[in-house]
Structure formats: C-alpha cells, structure tokens
Amino acid sequence: MKKVFHLLAKRLQQLGMHLVYANFIKILVATEKHTPAEARSCIDYALKKCVQENQKIFKYIGLTPC
C-alpha cells in the first residue's frame, strides 16, 4: 500500500500538481489554475490519466476529487 501511495504522489507531481499534504486518506494538491472550475478540470484530468496509464496498480483505489 505504501509503495502504491508513493507512486501516485510521484505521478501527480509529474503531471504538474504540487503536493501540499498527503496521507493514506487524503491528498491535498495545489494547482496553478486561477478559478475553481479550471483547477477541478485539471485534477480530473490528472486522476484519469493516472488510472489509464497504470490500471493494474491503481485499480483498487477510489480517487474522488472534492
């Protein structure tokens, strides 16, 4: 579980997210977008991209932006 968590955090950073806070329950990221709608679409894209590229690894993790 720890290894998968670190892979997800690393991949989010590669996609341009800045990790503010992260634990096994919550990941708080900062984007450089100016509006909440732009930030939401950026996060949705990053999560979708992570799951598509690594379906076997992130298959059992529930990723829900809020």
Could you give a short description of this structure?
The protein is of the alpha+beta class. It contains 2 helices and 2 strands; from the N terminus they run αββα.
Helix and strand layout, with pairings?
Elements: H1 2-14, E1 18-22, E2 27-30, H2 36-53
Antiparallel strand pairs: 1-2
Cα-atom radius of gyration = 11 Å
Order of helices and strands: HEEH
Could you describe the largest sheet, including whether it forms a barrel?
2 strands, antiparallel
Number of helices: 2
Structural class: alpha+beta
Q: Quick one: overall form?
A: globular
Low-confidence stretches: none
Report helical residue fraction.
40-55%
Strand order, main sheet: write it out: 1-2
Spatial separation of the terminal alpha carbons: 22 Å
- Total E-strand runs: 2
Would you write up a description of this structure?
It is a single chain. The chain has 66 residues and is an alpha+beta fold. Helices cover 47% and strands 14% of the residues. The protein has two helices and two strands; from the N terminus they run αββα. The protein has a two-stranded antiparallel sheet. The longest helix is centred in the last third of the chain and has 18 residues. The mean pLDDT is 83.
